[in-house]
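hey m, so remember when u said the tokens were messed up on ur end? i reran from scratch. heres the input so u can diff it against urs
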Amino acid sequence: MAFSIALIVAVPSLILLCFLIYKMCKGQNLTNQLVGDTDLLMNSAMEVCQFLQDELNTNKQKINLMISSYECLEHKYSVLAHQCSAGLDNLNAELTRLDVLLSQTTVTTDNRLIVLQNMVADIKQKMLQISVCHSSVREMENRLVKCISNSLQASNITLQNKIELLKELRIDLSSPLSSLDGLKCSIQVIINCIESDVPEQSLFLKFNKLYSCMRKLRTSLLSVLLNVDILQVDTGAALSLVQQLDELFTIFNKQIKYHTGNDAKKLQDIHLHAQLLQIRLLRFLVQQRSTMLTDACDSTTKFIASCSTEEEMRVPANVEETAIPGTVVAAGLFNISDDSAIVDVGVAGLSSVDTDSKGAIGSAHP
């Protein structure tokens, strides 16, 4: 009985002792692990502290270098400010002298500016006139080239007609159109051909558009022939006649294909003479407008020459001498030597500031 009681007491004690031994072993292992982790953490912390200490020393050196650069820069700028102050004093003195000089010449300058403004307005007006004349000449030249091209590229004319047209063009273009005699002859030839080869309008021929158009053209040509001298001063009549010839060519190109009469060859000849007349009219207009352009250019050249002569007579002899001192002072104001050393200061923003300041100076003095 006593043994059973002892066994009951000893077994739990033995189990408790084993549990305590296990706990102590586990706690010792955990302690060893914590000590190892702590050592690793301390080593890492020491490495980080050493790195931070090195970076701190490097940054201290950079800061010291930057402070030295700023001190050098401050010294340079103090020198620059002193030089600018002296230059501004000189400039103020020079401006005072120039102010007195300008106050004496203000009235004369204002009068000259008014004269120059009037000259510029007159020259602009003359240049506008030249531009209009030049555009008119180019327009007539383009119409002349287009007229010749259309005459040669018409689908209803034969190769023989093109050859005849080229022969007549060669003769016509080789001689200058100096008077209205050539136009009179061309107009008279077409009138004679229409009167002899185109029948009078009757009830039967009333609906023949080709004959009707040619008879209408004859009436217009007679009107122009009676007042041919008006072409020298009025280009509207010549342009109207050119437009009527264009209408004739349009109707002719449409109707000649369906014309079955025996007078087709005669109508082709009238068409050829009408083409030559239109080319001569356009040449006459080109020459007339070229003469207007030449006269406008000569007038403008003479006007500019006369204005230049008058302006040279108005300019005083000492104008250039008066402008020299101000230029010298302005040049001396910014004559700062040996400034390249202040740029390399290790600060990235200084280069952009220097660039902006130069841009501001450039915008103030274009």
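this time it looks ok to me. Confidence is low (pLDDT under 50) at residues 317-366. if urs says something different then somethings off w ur setup not the seq
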